[in-house]
Amino acid sequence: MHELFVAGEVDANYLKSHAVRPVVAHSWQRSLAGGVDPYLDGARDAVTTIDRLRETHPLAPALPVIRRLLVDDAADSGVVVAVSAADGTLLWVEGDPTACRKAEAMNFVPGADWSERSAGTNAPGTALALDRELQIHGSEHFSRIVQPWSCTAVPVHDPATGVLLGAIDLTGGDQVATAQTLALVRATAVAVENHLALLRIAGVAAEPAARRPHLVVLGGDRPRWVTTDRYGHLQATPLTGRHADILVLLSRHPEGLSADHLAVLLDDKDLDVVTVRAEMSRLRKVIGAENLASRPYRLSTPVTTDVDEVFAALDAGDVESALARYAGPLLIQSVSPAIARLRTQLSTTLRDAVLAEGRQGRTDLLRRWLDLPDGRDDREGWQALRDSAGLTAVARARARGHLAGLDFELG
C-alpha cells in the first residue's frame, strides 16, 4: 500500500478500504502533500542551540520523573525514550545504548526535527500534529528508513493553561506498540503534568506556558480573536469581516502572502493594494503588532483556529469530534473567493464524512448534521436518515415529512 500510494497509483480512500488505518492514511496524505521524501536517510536537524532549548524548555524540570518511570527500565530492553518539544524537535533521547546507536542512523537524536511536516508519519510527530496519543507500527511510517521501528507517543500539556508542551515517545520493536506500552506512556505523561503542577504550587517552576491565540470564525456569531492574559483569563476581541478573512488566509498560508496576493484572495475584482495595506495596519492594532509580520504578511505567533480543529479531527478519523467543533459555516457573509472555497471544502468534507458514518449506523451523527443550517436542505442526508435501520416510527415520519417539504419547495 505504501509503495502504491507514494507512486501516486492509489489515494487515501483506497488505503482506508484496504486495511490502512484512517489516521495513518491521512497522515501519509499530509506527508506527501507537504513534500516529505519517503526515501530520505533520516530527519533534518531543527536547531543548533539544543543546550539552550533544553535549559529553557518547560519539560526540563520533569525530566527526573520521565527517567525514573521510563528510562531506567529501558537501559537494556532495546527501547529508546525520547522527549520532544511541541514543534517536533527532539530534546532528550535516552535508553538502551545499542538501540540509541541504531536510532542515530536515521538522525533520531537531540536537535533533530521529527515533526510530521519534516519527517512524515511517526508517533511523536503525528501525535503532536493531532494533539492525541498515538501508536505507529513499523510499516505505517511514511519514511522507509523508519519502518523497521515501532513507536508510542503521548502529548504533554501545561497543567495550568492546557497548551501543548511536547510529547513523550517510546521507540523500539513491535513490543512498544502494544496496549500495555500505551498505558505506561500515558501514565508517565499524567505524572509529568502533575509534577509540573506541584512545582508551580510550590513556587519553584516557571510561569505557565502561554496559550496560543485562537481564531473563532465558524457559525453565526461575530468572528473573534481569543487570547489569554497573564492571569489565565480569556479575552475575546471582536473582528470585522475583512480582518477575519485576512486572519483565516494567513493561518492557511504560514509562508506568508504579499499584498498583491492578498488582494486577489480577498476580492475577485482585485482590491487596491493601498487598501490592503491600510487594513493590515488596522489589523496590527487590533491583535497586536507582535503577532503580525510583513514582507510578506504572515502570522509571527502560532495561532489555532476552529477551522483547523475540525480538519484535524477529520484527519484523525474522529467524525464525532469534528461535528462537535463545527459551529456552522465559515464566515458566511464573506464575499472573498478564497474564503468561499475554504467554506465549501470544510462543509463538504464534514458532510461526506457524516453521511458515511450515518450509513454505517451512526444516525446520531446524521441527525446532528441535519439540525445544522448546512444540513436542513440536505436531501441526500434526509433520505439516508429515512432509510436508516433502527429508526423509531416518529423519527422516520419526521424524515419523510422533511423530504416532502423539500420536494414541495424545490418543485
Automatic annotation (TrEMBL):
InterPro entries referenced in this protein's UniProt entry, alphabetically: GAF (IPR003018), GAF-like_dom_sf (IPR029016)
Name of the protein this chain belongs to: Putative GAF sensor protein
UniProt-listed Pfam families: GAF
Boundaries of every GAF domain copy: 85-195
Native source species: Mycolicibacterium vaccae ATCC 25954
Domain of life the protein comes from: Bacteria
